[in-house]
């Protein structure tokens, strides 16, 4: 599933090409996504200028003067910028034309989604799918000691593992499964330890690690496991930089102990049993 780095890489790729441009056509090839595509999407967007493209968690926010279109890539979604005349692929679900360019949502499993939030409904942050999200990892609220304090405060008396606590996204967004394992390794925290048992110092290290790992992933173009590619079709390269994820049985880069793999909440977790006691 595309996580925060992949969505941010997508935003960075498409924004320079369509920001400020006007939608000239909307084609819904198959609107049966995780939630049905709005029936009147073409009527809503036709001849409207895309003012800005932002990201909130794993949602891309396309801002127009009369509202915001929210787009989620789901499990296998990819946004591609192509020439209008290029032949659409089999699993292209929706496409937006900006003159000679087409922004196409390719989604084989149809777990992505597109929503419309009209301006009269207030700030898009009030949209139900956004309202309960945690803070953004690169915002001021998660910088310096503030991130550690936030993680510590929200974790008191929590008995779930710190891995599951971080993965939930209710305190800080965007730390997907790969980045959870990598951040916990960077902070030298055992992923099995109860969230409520981590010290302030531990959470300070973890907050710093989260920002470091996500920034590193974005600069590497995200992680391409199966389906994800950039808006220009190129894969991400973060997987060649991982210290623990998908390295079960291989030696730890720090202490040479074999990396272990366990399952937490039906997701694989990778860690070093020596560095992360």
Molecular structure report:
With 277 residues, the protein is an alpha+beta fold. It has 2 domains: 4-126, N-terminal domain of MutM-like DNA repair proteins, CATH 3.20.190.10; 140-271, Helicase, Ruva Protein, domain 3, CATH 1.10.8. The chain is 25% helix and 20% strand. It has 6 helices and 10 strands. The strands form 3 sheets. Strands 1-6-7-5 form a 4-stranded antiparallel β-sheet. Strands 2-3-4-8 form a 4-stranded antiparallel β-sheet, covered by helices on one side. Strand 2 (52-56) and strand 3 (59-64) form a beta hairpin. Helix 1 (4-18) crosses helix 6, helix 3 (144-155) packs across helix 6 (200-219) and helix 5 (177-187) packs across helix 6 (200-219). The longest helix is centred in the C-terminal third of the chain and has 20 residues, at 200-219. The two termini are 29 Å apart.
């Amino acid at each position: 599933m595309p996580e925060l780095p992949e969505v941010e890489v997508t935003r960075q790729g498409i924004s320079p090409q369509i920001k400020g441009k006007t939608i000239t056509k909307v084609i819904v090839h198959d609107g049966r996504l995780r939630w049905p595509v709005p029936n009147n999407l073409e009527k809503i967007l036709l001849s409207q200028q895309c003012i800005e493209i932002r990201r909130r968690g794993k949602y891309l926010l396309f801002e127009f003067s009369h509202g915001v279109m929210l787009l989620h890539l789901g499990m296998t979604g990819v946004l591609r910028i192509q020439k209008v005349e290029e032949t659409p692929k089999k699993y292209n679900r929706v496409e937006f034309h900006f003159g000679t360019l087409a922004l196409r949502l390719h989604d084989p499993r149809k777990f992505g989604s597109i929503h419309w939030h009209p301006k009269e409904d207030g700030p898009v942050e009030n949209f139900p799918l956004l309202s309960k999200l945690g803070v953004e990892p690169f915002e001021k609220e998660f910088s310096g000691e503030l991130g550690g304090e936030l993680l510590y405060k929200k974790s008191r008396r929590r008995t779930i593992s710190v891995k599951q606590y971080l993965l939930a996204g209710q305190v800080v967004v965007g730390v997907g499964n790969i980045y959870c394992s990598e951040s916990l390794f960077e902070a030298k925290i055992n992923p099995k330890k109860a969230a409520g048992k981590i010290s302030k110092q531990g959470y300070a290290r973890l907050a710093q690690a989260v920002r470091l790992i996500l920034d590193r992933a974005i600069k590497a173009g995200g992680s391409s496991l199966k389906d994800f590619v950039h808006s220009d079709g190129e894969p991400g390269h973060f997987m060649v930089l991982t210290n623990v994820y998908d390295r079960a049985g291989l030696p730890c880069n720090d202490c040479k102990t074999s990396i272990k793999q366990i399952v937490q909440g039906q997701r694989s977790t990778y860690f070093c049993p020596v560095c992360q006691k």
